[in-house]
Specification:
Helix content: 25-40%
CATH superfamily of the largest domain: Type I PLP-dependent aspartate aminotransferase-like (Major domain)
Mean pLDDT: 96
Shape: globular
CATH class of the largest domain: Alpha Beta
CATH topology of the largest domain: Aspartate Aminotransferase, domain 2
Bound molecules: 3-[O-phosphonopyridoxyl]--amino-benzoic acid, pyridoxal-5'-phosphate
Number of helices: 17
Strand content: 15-25%
CATH architecture of the largest domain: 3-Layer(aba) Sandwich
Distance between the termini: 42 Å
Low-confidence stretches: none
Oligomer: single chain
Number of strands: 15
């Protein structure tokens, strides 16, 4: 820590009326209430299996797999060894016009667990980068086939697709529009599927709402098919409150896209790698998109990495012009980074050895019983679940939306449980190695916190 800078930053903070503990001034934290956090910091210093430990040595049960990413649990030996070995063997390999063996190996392994016919893998370094990669791929795909008027990108209300310009544009979060304005032009949105009046407290997929997919026909009628490149949705919306797709909805969306030649992109950053009981939600729901965006569980959260998995036909359409030319002018300095590829291989080995990509399916009934037992607790207005994802929606405190949710988060943390809240919805997405006793602990702790937040 540079003392002079730290002191200057602290003085500046004091001048504006906020005080920050020594050593904490320089780090501008992402998606965090910085001033509040620095008054009462929550610091994690170690992790293993289902648990974190904080700087005071307290053990904390991980109810959210870090941030929906540590699907195999923490500090898994195969992954640790793979990263250590790779760091010593080769630190970096230029990804443009060059490659290293593990990039091919990881792509093959991802393709093996992807839906039939989706055999091409393009690497990025985060979900946000993978989302923007997929959007650019969709635009370029139509151009390379001579349908260059297909430029419009469609998202869905209440969608979250990361933080880059493409992602916030197709995303459906009003906060991004309030903070950043227009972003990418030529974007429109279909309706979200959340319907608490008809579907509250449904176990698994809601019965009502397949017809909401027809909203895509409305936008086709408005913009004309010839102008629409792609529609991107999360099969299960995570960040905006755990919204489960109604029965038949995704298939209907698929059918409408197929009818009009619109690419369907599933953003599986959260649902990918076993979260819903199959490797991808596409398989859980039996609907195959044209592109899958993934990240998080790809490397068990250990080294940043994202990817786009493309249908073979989409990739093949690019392989047309002269062979010496670059087919898709896109990529990142750290695409297919050796450390990330090593971590990815260690992760997929761990998933395979322990059957983790289908374990959510085995645990989901017990998990569902647990989360739905919170129905009837004070202010619980809805409970939603699929695989090992749970959403418990609380009614907001009068005039102070998000505060009750945050109070529950703080209370759980105090009692040794890490959860995630988005607005007033508690989101659970534990590591897939979870045992029944952990589910019991999560539900007991959460129940107490919800009661105390009444
Ligand atoms: N798409 C989806 C569906 C996501 O959930 C991203 C894209 C972006 O990934 P990166 O790796 O760029 O963060 C995400 C990320 C939350 C939360 O609280 C969820 C995410 C990120 C931060 C917070 O639910 N998901
Ligand atoms: N900005 C500048 C000036 C660069 O040279 C580069 C990459 O070479 C980038 C941004 C993009 O960085 P990355 O490839 O890590 O996304």
């Amino acid at each position: 820590m540079n003392k002079a800078i730290d002191t200057a930053l602290m003085q500046a903070a004091e001048a504006t009326g906020s005080t920050v503990p020594a050593g904490m001034a320089a780090y501008w934290m992402p998606f965090t209430a910085n001033r509040q956090f620095k008054k009462a910091p929550r610091l994690l210093t170690r992790a293993e299996g289902m648990h974190y430990w904080d700087d005071k040595g307290r053990q904390i049960l991980d109810g959210v797999a870090g941030l929906w990413c540590v699907n195999a649990g923490h500090a898994r030996p195969r992954i640790v060894q793979a990263i250590q070995q790779q760091a010593a063997e080769m630190d970096f390999c230029p990804p443009f016009q060059m490659a290293h063996p593990k990039a091919f190996e990881l792509a093959e392994r991802v393709a093996q667990i992807a839906p039939e016919g989706m055999g091409k893998v393009f690497f990025a370094n985060s979900g946000s980068e993978a989302v923007d990669t997929a959007l650019k791929m969709a635009l370029a795909y139509h151009r390379v086939r001579g349908e260059g008027t297909r430029t419009r990108l469609l998202g869905r209300e209440r969608g979250y697709h990361g933080v880059n310009f493409g992602g916030i544009s197709v995303g459906g979060m009003v906060g991004n529009r309030k903070t950043f304005g227009l972003a990418v032009a030529g974007v429109d949105h279909i309706r979200h599927t959340h319907d608490p009046v008809r579907n509250a407290f449904t176990v698994g997929q809601p019965e009502h709402g397949a017809d909401i997919a027809d909203d895509l026909e409305r936008l086709v009628a408005l913009h004309d098919t010839s102008n629409i490149a792609a529609v991107i949705v999360e099969p299960v919306a995570g960040s905006t409150g755990v919204l489960i797709p109604p029965q038949g909805y995704l298939q209907r969306l698929r059918d409408i896209c197929t009818k009009h030649g619109i690419l369907l992109i599933f953003d599986e950053v959260i649902t990918g790698f076993g979260r819903t009981g199959q490797p991808f939600a596409a398989q859980t729901f039996g609907v195959t998109p044209d592109l899958i965006v993934c990240a998080k569980g790809l490397t068990n959260g250990c080294v940043p990495m994202g990817a786009v998995i493309a249908k073979n036909a989409i990739h093949d359409a690019f392989m047309s012009g002269p062979e010496h030319l670059i087919e898709f002018s896109h990529g990142y300095t750290y695409s297919a980074h050796p450390l990330a590829c090593a971590a990815g291989l260690g992760t997929l080995d761990t998933y395979a050895e322990e059957g983790l990509l289908t374990r959510a399916g085995e645990m989901q009934d017990y998990f569902a019983q647990g989360v739905h037992s919170l129905k009837g607790e004070p202010n619980v207005i809805d409970v939603r679940n699929i695989g090992l994802v749970g959403g418990i929606e609380l009614s907001p405190l009068a005039g102070e939306p998000t505060k009750r949710g945050f109070n529950v988060f703080l209370d759980c943390y105090d009692k040794g449980l890490l959860i995630r809240t988005t607005g007033d919805t508690v989101a659970l997405s534990p590591p897939l190695i979870i045992e029944r006793s952990h589910i019991d602990q999560i539900i007991d702790t959460l129940r107490g916190a919800i009661r105390r937040a009444a």
